[in-house]
Amino acid sequence: MELQVSTSSAGRSLLTPGQVMAQLGIKRRALGNWTKSGKIGSCKIGRLRRYLQSDVDALLGMTTINTAQAAQPSQYVEQLLAQDRQQRQIEELMGRVAELERRLAAEYQRAA
Questions:
Q1: Which residue from 20, 87, 12 is spatially nearest to 49, judged by alpha carbons?
Q2: Where are the alpha helices (DSSP H) in 38-74?
Q3: 3-state DSSP call for residue 45?
Q4: What is the pLDDT of residues 4-53, one digit of tens each?
Q5: How many angstroms separate the CA atoms of 64 and 14, rounded?
Q6: Could you tell me which CATH class the domain 14-111 is placed in?
Q7: Ranges of H-type helices in 25-74
Q8: What are the phi and psi torsion angles at 14 (to 5°)?
Q9: DSSP for residue 9
Q10: How far lies 2's CA from each of 26, 39, 56, in Å?
Q11: pTM of the entire structure?
Q12: Which residues have C-beta within 8 Å of that of residue 98, sequence separation ≥ 6?
C-alpha cells in the first residue's frame, strides 16, 4: 500500500520505510542508521514514520525515479552502505577489544 499526499510541489509525496528501502536498495537497519544520523530526513505521524520522496531522490542523485533506476542504487548510496559496513566492523572490533580487556583484568586479579 502506497501512501501519497497531494501537495502543490512535485516530490512531496510521503513514503513508508518499506518503500524507501526498496528505492534505495537498503535494509531496515541501514535506513534506521541513516535516519538517526540525519543522512535522510523523516517525520512521525502518530507512531508511523514517513519519508519525503524528494529526500530519497536527493540521495539517489536524481529528480525522478522509475523502477529500473530504483533497482540500482546510485554511487552515493553505495558509499553510504560502505560507510555503514565499516562502522559496524569498527563497533564489532571495539566490542572484542573490551572483552579482551575484561578477560585480561580477570586474569590479572587471579594472579595477584
A1: 20
A2: 53-60, 67-70
A3: strand
A4: 444 444 446 899 999 999 998 899 999 999 999 888 989 888 899 999 99
A5: 14
A6: mainly alpha
A7: 28-37, 53-60, 67-70
A8: -95, 140
A9: S
A10: 18, 23, 15
A11: 0.50
A12: none
As a whole number of angstroms, the distance between CA 90 and CA 17 comes to 26
Structure-block grid coordinates of residue 78:
553505495
Record the cell numbers describing residue 4, joined without a space. Answer: 501519497
Identify the three-state secondary structure at position 65.
coil
CB under 8 A, 24+ apart: contacts of 43-50: 45/14, 48/16, 49/17, 50/3, 50/14, 50/15, 50/16
What is the Cα–Cα distance from 10 to 27, expressed in whole angstroms? 26
How far apart, in whole angstroms, are the C-alpha atoms of residue 93 and residue 71?
Answer: 32
33: which 3 cell numbers? 542508521
Domains of the chain, residue spans: 14-111
DSSP at 43: E
Q: Please state, as a whole number, how many other Cβ atoms lie within 10 Å of the Cβ of residue 53.
A: 20
What order do you get walking across the sheet with 43-45 strand by strand?
14-15, 48-52, 43-45
